[in-house]
Fold this protein.
Amino acid sequence: MRTHNISDKSTIAAVMYMVAAIVFLLTAVLGETGGGAAFLILGMAFIALSLNAWNSRSGH
């Protein structure tokens, strides 16, 4: 069983992608501009990137 620390590059990438996803999704929900759908799509894309980075971190 491998142990990981927070300095792992894929761990940092996964966390950064998830933070970006949260920012984009909050902007889509709370934003007053007409570009909410674009922010929603970007948020979902960053969730996918985050899960991909997390899975590569876990060795799957």
